[in-house]
Each structure stands twice: as structure tokens, then as C-alpha cells.
Amino acid sequence: MAVITFDPSDFKATYPEFSSVSDARCTIMFTIAEQSILDNTDGSPVMDVDYRTQLFYMLIAHLLLIFGVSDTPTANNTPPGRISNATEGTVSFASEYKVPEGSMMAAWFLQTKYGAMYWTVTARFRSATYIALGGSGVGYSKAFGVPVPNIPGGI
Description:
7% strand; 2 strands
């Protein structure tokens, strides 16, 4: 397996809506995603490097919308959550941050379309996988396939 090296120009080609974002800002979001959300080592559950790259791009887009696309903090006035109500006359606005059933992490991802897509396509990595090794295990150690030692008195 390999480790992904982030390429801001490739990210911007994939998501042209972020073409005006600085390369430094995109790289910072990649670093945040790499260090806290998705493993970018040889031990990653996502073994396909191309697939992992696309997951990182979704995460970067999600983080850019959450934290803001600008390097200047005052320019990032995007509220968290989804807009649930808006009026124009005498200005009114409401946003919601719903916690879905099942996972508290899902609420954070579902705030943007990129996070929702990431959450959906990574479901298989959050599920337990049962692999039957075969046999009942009676008389043999399942781990090593060797007979269980005979304990006097049947304890």
C-alpha cells in the first residue's frame, strides 16, 4: 500500500467550486483530515489508494465548508448545519443541526453534501465483519488449529 501525497491542483480539478481557495488552505484541511479522521498509513482500512484519495477530497471539501474557504477568519461567516427556513421580507433565517438516530458522528458529517457523501460511502468501513473460520472448535483451538491440551479432572 501507499501513502497519499496531497495535490491541491488535482483536488481543485475534481471540485472546481473550490478553485479560488488557496493551496495552503486546502493543504491545511488535508492535514486535519489525515491526522484526525481518515488513516493515511499502510494500516488504513481503505487499501485502494485511488479510493482513499477520493475520500480525502470529500473530507477536504467538507472541512472547507465547515471551517470556511477563506484564509481570513472574518470572511468565513457560514453557519453550521443546514438551512431549514429562510424569508426575504424583514429577513429571517433558521438552520438546523439534527442528530440522526444511531451515531453522533453522523450529525457532523451530514452538515454538508460532501460530508454526507463521505458518511454514506464509508459505511462499509464502520460495520463489523464476521468471518467464520469453519469447524465448531470442539477439540481444537480455533486460533491455531492444534488440539486443546488435556486438563486433568476436565476443568
